Amino acid sequence: MKNNFVSIGKILNFHGVKGEAKLGYTKNREDFLSQVKKVYLKTGNDYKEFEIQNLRFTPKCAIVKFKGIDSINDIINYKGAVVFVEEEIARKFLEEDEFLIDELVGMNVYDGDKRVGSVVGVSNNGASDLLSVKTMSKNICLVPFVKAIVTSVDMKTKKIHINNIEGLLS
């Protein structure tokens, strides 16, 4: 059974001795994180529910305090744990033309009517999201996920149309 969870960050380390943790997360998602009340930490194959008691931001990460985690000994076991929210919560905060990574992976990529590859991953270079596209010749090419290049994403037909500028998919 597929869990309907979406990852939103990772516990990087503990912070201080009162059970706080350093949370790594995607840049520019402070508004979203500030409104999340309940998260799930995954350790092994288990998802454990936690309520966020307090959250603040530093230039490099977020500092999070979970209800019931009150000491360094309580939080240290979760170092490296991936932090999830329920998919429906994440969807509420998606803006127009934003997608969940899981939805894009596996979609076919077209230049006009010609299939040129499929999405095998999504990453971010700090400036924009990048689609990792496996071309028909089995090369992996990074395609900036920007309007000038990705002209449309059709969730129903699972097709992404791109403006294949010279040298993009080589």
Characterise the protein shown here.
The chain is mainly beta and 170 residues long. The chain has 2 domains: 5-92, Elongation Factor Tu (Ef-tu), domain 3 (Beta Barrel); 101-162, SH3 type barrels (Roll), CATH 2.30.30. It contains 4 helices and 12 strands. The strands form 2 sheets. A 6-stranded antiparallel beta barrel has the order 1-2-5-4-3-6. It has a 6-stranded mixed β-sheet with strand order 10-9-8-7-12-11, with no helix packed on it. The model has no long low-confidence stretch (mean pLDDT 88).
Q: Averaged pLDDT, please?
A: 88
Order of SSEs: EEHEEEHEHHEEEEEE
Count helical runs.
Answer: 4
Indicate the CATH class of the largest domain. Mainly Beta
Count of discrete structural domains: 2
Helix content: 10-25%
Tell me the span between the first and last alpha carbons.
38 Å
The gyration radius over C-alpha positions equals 19 Å
The best one-word shape is elongated
The main sheet orders its strands as: 1-2-5-4-3-6
Computed structural class: mainly beta
